[in-house]
Amino acid sequence: MTYCVALRLEGGLVMLADTRTNAGVDNISTFRKLTVIEHPGDRVIGLMTAGNLAVSQAAINRAVEQGVRLGDSEELETLHTVPTMVRAAQLMGQAVRDVYRNDGPSLEAQAGDFNVSILLGGQVGNGELRLFQIYSAGNYIEATEDTPYLQIGEHKYGKPIIDRALNYDTDLGDGLKLALISMDSTMRSNLSVGMPIDLMVYRRKALKVALQRRIKDDDAYFAGLRRSWSDALTQAYRAIPGPGWDF
Asked: Residue 101: in which H helix or E strand, if any?
């Protein structure tokens, strides 16, 4: 399993992904699930994946390197060449459908699961900063100002934190903290999500990555954040008056 969360805020974009994959308690591996395409001054696009690792990697390779044909076009496009973020979402969806056409029947014949979810966010040229979630069928939804974040993978443990505290106008730094707290809460409750975690931060209209970092077990800031959040929760629940009921 995995957990990926992306925030599309007024100030920019935060993308955060764990790296754990497992096929049982004794078969745990680490794979990078965050891919960043950066052409300074032209585009920044981030991709995060969850689901079947072979399907995810095949779809990303098509979209980033091999190229995809959209509609009746004879031209191969990649995420390095698409003119807009909407076109990027369409291309990523078509890449997923292409992989299904090639590999889906074989997977199903072996009782396998064609399961992939992709978060795609970024900005191309003077276009809008956008964030999409692409499904196994190749269709997609987009984050809005009302719901300025998207999650894939094991998201239920980290969702309440973001739902309570995040708004579209949340400061980008505060959004980063919320994403990290959301990830920590998920890792504490589910062993299939684990370190290290990969982070990308992009400031709106900058057309270059503001921060890209791999956070490991020995990261001082993340360790302090985990302690501070646990202490704050303990203090908060203790400060709430009891119900006064007899029991």
From this structure: helix 85-109
